[in-house]
Amino acid sequence: MVTTSLDLNAQGKQQGFLQVPYSHNLGGWANVMVPMTIVARGKGPTVLVLGGNHGDEYQGQIAIMKLARELTPSQVKGRILLIPSLNLPAARAATRLSPVDGMNMNRAFPGQADGCVTSQLAHYLTTVLFPLSDVVIDIHSGGRSMEFVPCSTMHLVADRAQRRQMLDAMLAWNADFAFLYADIAGTGLLPVEAENQGKLVVTTEMGGGECVPAAVHRVTQTGLRNVLMHVGALTGRPLSRAQLGKPPTILTQALNREDYLLAPESGIFEISLDLGSKVRRGQTIGFIHNLERPDRAPEPLVSKSTGYLITMRAPCLTQQGDCVAVIAQHVSVKEVMA
Questions:
Q1: Is the peptide bond before 110 cis (omega within 30 degrees of 0)?
Q2: pLDDT tens digits for range 115-144
Q3: Omega before 315 within 30 of 0, i.e. cis
Q4: For residue range 168-184, what is the model confidence (pLDDT) as tens digits?
Q5: What is the strand order of the sheet 317-318 is part of?
Q6: Which terminus of the chain, N or C, has fewer Cβ atoms within 10 Å?
């Protein structure tokens, strides 16, 4: 059901749309039109770069829009497909989920050709864009719900060769932290579908919240370009952190459910450590204050592992069961590959 006027195999630079049928109360023959730019020249890898998987995560959307405007075919080796705002209705509404169908794009894969808007887009990526691609880059942040130490991320895939390629590309982002994560909140993730198709997949968590510091925009934008050079799709030589005069990336992982701290009750969340801080097992990392019983001592949140505070909840007002913090353990490249 998804259509496009773009020629996915043409050389040069094209700007167009993915068009998804969508009927609403004031539009019987309407479409959701998702902007896409293609820049192609000669032989080389095909890289699909995605932002706005969740609509309230704007760091990647800005980075990809800027890249789409700036790239010329002479800078490309192969083909780069750029979709700044994959979940366009959610981006317009500043929401995590799509307002047209209530779906989470990152839980919609592999999708359905005759499903709702989000499901149709997921199906198009699964059956058309992923098979075309060698590399899939999916740029996330914490959105309005979480605040991350800006980090590049990946799953721990079973195939060792694929894992090594993903690890090297993740580190090429040159963020201070890299983060291997587990899925504790459902299935149907975009990166998992691409991984299952054997693609080199790189994801990120570039900060969060609605106020994005300039430093976070810088690491998002320079990291994206460096990874594109690393995989051979963009002309130029990628730089390492050592060449930039920076210490090695801190490689971390949170693969167990106990690494993800959930609020035991509702209330106002207070974090007591700075993001990126080292945390000891048994250390209190924050408190939940009870709105109805301010005379009662707040509920402490205690870390169940030793590592780094990689993310925390952004809104202070918290419901029981919300993730309020993640503690990620320091690991070596050797341990990741083992």
A1: yes
A2: 999 999 999 999 999 999 999 999 999 999
A3: no
A4: 999 999 999 999 998 87
A5: 299-302, 284-289, 267-271, 317-318
A6: C
